[in-house]
Amino acid sequence: MIAPTAIRMVKKGAEASRFHDQETPAASKTCSRGARVLSTIVLLILVYWNVYPVFWHTSQPSSSYANLDSDWDFNVQTRTGAESFPCPGQPNFECTNVIVPKDYLNASAGTSTVAIARLRATAKTSKGTIFLGAGGPGGSGVRMALNGFAEALSAIVNGAFDIVGFDGRGIHLSRPVVQCFPSQFARQTFGLGTILDRGFELPPNPESAEGRAHILQQWGAWRAFYAAQYQICGKKYGEELKYMGTSTVVRDIAHIADIFDGRGSPLNFWGGSYGTIVGAYLVGMFPERAGRVVIDGVVDPNMWGNVPTHKWLQILMTDSENTYEWIIKACVEAGPSACPLTKENGTASNIAERLDDYLNKLYYNPLPITNHSRPGILTSGQARASLFQAVASPSAWPQIARLFAQALDGDPTPLYDLRTRVLELPPRANEMGDLSRSAVSCADAYVTKDGANPEELTATTLELLKLTPRFALTVPSTEPDGACEFWPTQGREPERFAGPWKDTLASPMLVVSPLSDPVTPLSAARTVHSLMPNSTRILIQ
Fold first, then answer.
1. What's the pLDDT tens digit per position in 28-58?
2. In 3-state terms, what secondary structure has residue 390?
3. Is 491 a member of any domain?
4. Beta bridge partners of 177
5. Could you tell me if residue 403 is inside a domain?
6. Residue 364 three-state SS
7. Domain of 501, in residue numbers
8. Ranges for the Peptidase S33 tripeptidyl aminopeptidase-like C-terminal domain (predicted)?
9. For the stretch 278-304, what's the b/e string if a residue is b when 16 or more beta carbons lie within 10 angstroms of its beta carbon?
């Protein structure tokens, strides 16, 4: 899932009173000092986010560990925590590959390894380990830790805890990693020029016969491409793919905590976006061991495990248009010098109309792009995905607004460049994974026997357009989940947690949510609170 946004709106006045309404009287009386401390931690880290990039996504490596992948020592493995090596470029961190059971319910299945980066507590005695859960699924917790988040969190807790970032099953440095294509170039060429590359295109009149037919055709192509890449994955990995689910990842956390902190020790966790699913599953599967747990930018865990994937967007996107309207208004308030989409005496509605008109024209007349290392055409699907990128990450809005202003003034090449990746040549082994996200989400998902056919997907899209008329067809490209009926090991996972959640946590879980987010809406945080009203506290930013 997309990250919690780096720009937060802090609640005041009436909104603050609504925050208190989220706590039951009993919860207010029993609110622990630990929960108040975690609230302070959240606020301080959000301040930190205003200076540094958001960490939930797999970011580009910083110069201090640009060679992390190539310098990682896969030969150093540990069952006891004793064996480790200095993390590449970050010698104050300990890195290692923890040997874990491949299947916790079947010892004969063998073992896997989970890559971790650990920042030791600086206090004389560690109070335990805080595990970091990255977004995605597919984001690297190792990178998240090394990219500054672990050091920031350690400073905030006065060095009292070890901080551990880990790569989940099938992801990045953990082994086996899900790398279905032999190279990144092979994966790029697989989807080159297709809906996987150009994105879905939203017809200006989607309810018309022509519009419905095009949406139907696109969903048919999408299902075929997903079925093909899943078949490629199945031929390579076979039954290995069934061990990638979040339930198994949570058991990995408990297993590693047993190694580092002692058997049955408290499980402390911080997760954002998809990491909130890991956190919710952790307190659901191990309520008696839940320690200090924070989830930020929440994905609805009940949806994740109990709702078919083609219906997810109706839950995820409840705030998408509100967030879009907010960034458009911010553009007007910033003025033409900071946001060139704003004309003299321009209004938010004027900007929105101009962007809508541009996207509709692109639908019928894609623009040729020749002054680029990868010549092609700018489609409405690509441009709309770029616009949604700004909705998802408002910190990117100034740059994207400039690109759209250039495109509106006749130079679409910079906008085309934003989502056009240079082909990876010469081809090299894709050792850090490709379909890791699908491996996790399909292991977790509730799947009907035959899934949703193009007609059902089209009907769902038309219904979703009532909620988000601009982006109903965009997120299937930016949030690539679904078609799990084609996943090779679908239904054969050793374990698939889907609730229930016990309202019995010794320390309340802190649930952090922005007022408005395009795919991790406030309603998801409230769902978690409804599942555990006496064991959660909500902090709304």
1. 333 344 444 444 455 444 433 333 333 333 3
2. helix
3. no
4. 170
5. no
6. helix
7. 77-178+241-309+497-540
8. 483-538
9. bbbbbbbbbbebbbbbbbbbbbbbbbb
